[in-house]
Amino acid sequence: MQLRTFLGVVVLALSLTSCSTVQKVVYRIDVPQGNYLEASTVAQVKPGMTAQQVQYLLGTPVLIDPYSNLTWYYVFLQQHSYQKPEQHTFTVKFDQNGLVSSAELDKPLPEVAKQDENNTIISTPENTGKKSWWKFW
Predict the structure, then answer these.
(1) Does residue 79 contact residue 85 with C-beta atoms inside 8 Å?
(2) Tell me, what DSSP letter sits at residue 24?
(3) Dist CA 75 CA 47 (whole Å)
């Protein structure tokens, strides 16, 4: 009787541990957190811009320096499936007039494939005057 319970526990333990040893079978999604930063938008931040212009480009910062309100931190954390998370911090410093004095990125952002703009031209067929009665759609 005790042998059957012992074997049952051993089989159950082995079956549970065997599931955990198989790696990368379960799909894990990419998890972006914080401010989504792209290299093209970060490159547009130049000295002399106002705080409203920076906020229009990058959104609300994750952290504003609580002591001076002149330093904004944009933090972007990206974790691709089974890889280590990668953190990028973009720091924007303002002068007393509220203009950007410096903008620093701690490490380069990965390049995103350029998306084509939607420049679709909608045109009508040339023979619009001649319509058949059976082509009503």
Answers:
(1) yes
(2) S
(3) 20
Q: Report the candidate in 53, 32, 43, 39 with the shortest Cα–Cα distance to residue 99.
A: 53
CA triple 67-69-73, angle to 5 deg: 105
What single string gives the DSSP state of each residue in 80-114? -TTSPPEEEEEEEEE-TTSBEEEEEESSPPPPPPP
Q: Where are the alpha helices (DSSP H) in 29-85?
A: 39-43, 51-58
pLDDT in tens, 80-134: 888 888 999 999 999 999 999 999 999 888 776 555 444 444 444 555 556 666 6
Task: Kindly report the backbone phi and psi dihedral angles of residue 91, in degrees, each rounded to the nearest multiple of 5, phi listed first.
Answer: -110, 125
For 26-68, how does the pLDDT look when each residue is reduced to its tens digit (9 = 90+)? 777 888 888 888 888 899 999 999 999 999 999 999 999 899 8
